Amino acid sequence: MTKQLLTYLFICWNCLSFGQANVIDLAIQKAHSSEIVQLEFSKSGQYLASMAQNNEFVIWDVYHEKSIATFTLSSIESVLGMKFNPNGEQLLVLTKRTTIIYDYAQEKLTQTVTNDTNYRLKTYGFDEKSNYEIYLKKGSIIKKRKDKRIHKYKLGVSYSNESFKAFDYSVAKSLLVGVTENDIVYVYNYQTGAKKKELKGHNSAVNDVRFLAGGNYFATAGKDRSIIIWDATTLQIHKRLASRIFRKKTAVFSPDGQHIYVGDELGYIYDINFQSAFPEINIAQHNLHAVNKIRSYQTRYLVAGANNQVALKNDPLTEEIIEKYAYRDHSFLEAKGMLLEQFGTYQESFGAVELLERSPNGRNILYTGESDYPSINWANISSGKVKRMYNAYDPTKWKDLHFITDSTFIGIYDSSNVLYHWMIQGKDILKKTDTLPFLLEDFEVIDAQHIWLNTKHYGQYIYNLETRLYDKKLDQSAVSLFSANNFIVLQSASGSLEFYDLEKAAMYNRFIGHKEYVTDLNFHPDGDKFVTSSDDGTVRLWSLKEKRQLAILIPFKNQEFIFITADSYYLTSKGAMDEIGFKVGSQFFYPEQFDLKYNRPDFVLAQMGFSNDNLIAAYRKAYLKRIKKMGFTENDIRGDFHLPSVDLVNINKIADETNEDSLHLQLEIRDDLSFLDRINVWINDVAIYGVDGISIRDLKKNFLTLDMAIELADGNNKIQISVLNQTGAESYKTTLNVNKIASGEKPNLFIASIGISKHQDSRYDLTYADKDAKDLVAILKNDTYFNEVNAMTLTNEEVKIENLAQLKTFLNQAKINDVVLVFIAGHGVLNAEFDYFFATHDMDFDAPEERGVPYEAIEELLDGIKALKKMLFMDTCHSGELDKDEIEEDSNNDDDEEQGDIIFRNAGRSVKLKDNPLGVQSTNDLMKSLFTDLRKGTGATVISSSGGTELSIEGNNFNNGLFTYCLLNGLTTGAADLNEDDEIYISELQTYVKTEVNRLSNGLQTPTSRIQNKELDYRIW
């Protein structure tokens, strides 16, 4: 598919001051809230517009597989078609009354009057070249010459009751694709009408299909809300566009204010827990229907959903139900369901409780909702008895319902002007009506005598229930009302909330944030903060006193989450990073490129106000530690520097897929203020020209054009290019993905294995380190996954600084698809400055810096070699990463530590963590739990046998070092094959070894990852 470059020419962190066009916006990956009914590609194919049944539009960056903008039109707009303008910068939407133009770079909607009605129809096409019409008639696709009566062919789904809903075709590819009310995509030969294939990938009705210009790809979408892009040549799925963010139906605080409980359309309940140091998300799903309302009741909770009931619980997440109140008696009716693959299950309701009210004394509840025969239900919480009130002559849905007193309540029908009053007196139910001169949307109770009326088109009124007089308060109408803390809250069609102060009889503030309808609003016990849920998939936290949004909260059903402030700072669990990104204009950026600036847990927690000052200080310290590791200061992150730029000139000529071994790149690099210094190129986060890149410093140029050919690995190649200027500022990374068709050849394995048990200073001799190095080679020699296993082993007297060069020469033989492993076993020693050194045979343990091997020299063995898949295993003490600011020498540890049958590989200084007055984990550990490590380094995955302050174990029980023992055992027994697919990947081996070492050492030793290349997970056995 044709791709366009993400240009970073004029974009930098301080670009916020350069005007609206360059504002950096957070791009939350929210997709559609209802089924997709129409699709349209831009001419270049970089963008795809999708429209849902609820008039919600999403603009997708197809290249990055991300949504970059959304907007929703009023339900009164009847959409006839949509298309991109010729340069792809705007989406034009034709409705029955106007043409709406959406500029998605500026997120601006305008409308105009135009005579242009040339929009694609899902049910009609005309092949101008051959004068053929293709159209739908009675659910069949018909092709005929425009000047003929007899059709060339007629296509139908004859063996089912399904009908075609839409079609599209490509003359160039001779394909015609039709979609139906079932989940099958039908592909035919365009010329003859012969069926080619039935494609499966959707999970319910498919509503539209659209070919990309040129016909290489086509997209389909429908009721499951996902978009599949198909390869028109192979008829295989090329990519799927979707989101894990679904409509949130309710949000409420716990009575102590430390939890927010959220219910969504998939039936999940989320517990957002602020009591822990790092916010936690706990999740439950006890049925397959939406959770529409959660309400606290003393220390208990009422949970209402689309499963025909209200449940009384001690905890919203538990399966245990204290009492159940049914909505209707016909629960045996079968519900129509639809599966959302990979995202959960959404099932259409047969008795959905949508309104839930508690009486002032808390003893009774009212509830009603969606059903083919709606009723109002009154239930006594103590006895569990339910009274149902039906209107035998009107099956209209009840629109709103509220208690007036403990025994009286009012309800209104949808699109009605009648107030229905009920009174419960023992076994009797009394009813009366009030007829008003206007239609009602909904209402709220002010007190036992007055209610607030939201009318259709006639504004807002206060109605006196005794005198039956009404007093107009506002001219504006609202789509719905909420009531809280002496405020009436009016919701607009855009999702904004206007608070009307009843005491002052005036508007207090308008809260803008949600992109779609707000479904629930509830206050914190402090009376200031309130929380809202919305169909836009977010939960939002607000401050009433400060009149602003505090944070956007998005929980996911896999216990991941994202919290975002109004100024785009975020706190996120690592697994949720894929659900966000950034955009400047219409260009999408992966989150890692702005993560240093905007990933600020300290800012987010401080704004939300749930954490104490000590904890926030710990988060800030972790952040400062992180940017220091990356070589930045806070001033740098504020953007007080100039950035160079890199432009990939031939981006439009680069295909998504190739069988060529190399890729030609044409680069233009520039910096208007400083000379250029170096170019960095990564493939799958591996620096293919080494960590120092290609130096261009001596050229003393501000502008340079460069042609380069880079070798491609089998499979996906995520290629990133950046340039540094001579002040050290680095451009944003130009990124593209190219898939190289695999050659089918097995890779080779290259092992450089080092183990030392015997030292010149025999006091530090070990028993098993040299054996570790030999055993690993012996085991891997039998690894049948590889074509050849090549090894070079250095042990004991051979382990000297001078011999490292021959290891580098050996590893340089590896090719790009090969796998490289460097293994070291022996003593890891810290010097007076707490720098790590691997002990050589002739090292002076009192001065390790003189003849010891620094960590950087070990890692350099892997730098700049051709192989992308490379790893370093270190079975030594102190092999994990240390934070020097948080450690001190431990004078209580002896150099030769022994416990029973095990001995610690300890030599030199022992260290321990300093006391942490903040009461949380070390700043280094906190930093790793909060932030993705953006350091790419050599691109190798580095697995250490122990933490930076820990010692590594060896012993007769293992006949090896403990880390090496677990490594060998995981491979030879298959125990490291965690998914039991008869293949062991590096990620599986890492997880297995970490768990086993910790278990067998009773927590004394825990392997860690100094650096992990998360872009590459590859097979090792």
Radius of gyration: 33 Å
Average pLDDT confidence is 84
Low-confidence spans? 1-22, 330-347, 894-902
For the sheet with most strands, the description reads: 7 strands, antiparallel
Strand content: 35-45%
Number of helices: 11
Spatial separation of the terminal alpha carbons: 35 Å
Instruction: Name the strands of the widest sheet in spatial order.
Output: 36-37-38-39-40-41-42
What class would the helix/strand composition place it in? mainly beta
Provide a short characterization of the protein structure.
This protein is mainly beta.
List the helices and strands and how they pair.
Elements: E1 24-26, E2 36-41, E3 47-52, E4 56-61, E5 66-72, E6 79-84, E7 90-95, E8 99-103, E9 108-112, E10 124-127, E11 132-137, E12 140-145, E13 153-155, E14 164-170, E15 175-180, E16 184-189, E17 195-200, E18 206-211, E19 217-222, E20 227-231, E21 237-241, E22 248-253, E23 259-264, E24 268-273, E25 280-285, E26 291-297, E27 300-305, E28 309-313, E29 323-326, E30 337-340, E31 344-347, E32 352-358, E33 364-370, E34 376-380, E35 386-389, E36 398-403, E37 408-413, E38 416-425, E39 428-445, E40 450-455, E41 460-464, E42 470-474, E43 480-484, E44 487-491, E45 497-501, E46 506-511, E47 518-523, E48 529-534, E49 539-543, E50 548-555, E51 561-564, E52 570-572, E53 582-584, E54 587-589, H1 595-598, H2 601-608, H3 613-629, H4 634-637, E55 645-648, E56 657-658, E57 662-670, E58 676-683, E59 686-687, E60 694-695, E61 703-711, E62 715-725, E63 734-740, E64 749-755, H5 769-780, E65 789-795, H6 804-811, E66 819-825, E67 828-830, E68 836-838, H7 848-851, E69 853-854, H8 855-860, E70 869-875, E71 887-889, E72 898-899, ...
Parallel strand pairs: 56-63, 64-65, 64-66, 66-70, 70-75
Antiparallel strand pairs: 1-53, 2-3, 3-4, 4-5, 6-7, 7-8, 8-9, 10-11, 11-12, 12-13, 14-15, 15-16, 16-17, 18-19, 19-20, 20-21, 22-23, 23-24, 24-25, 26-27, 27-28, 28-29, 30-31, 32-33, 33-34, 34-35, 36-37, 37-38, 38-39, 39-40, 40-41, 41-42, 43-44, 44-45, 45-46, 47-48, 48-49, 49-50, 50-51, 51-52, ...
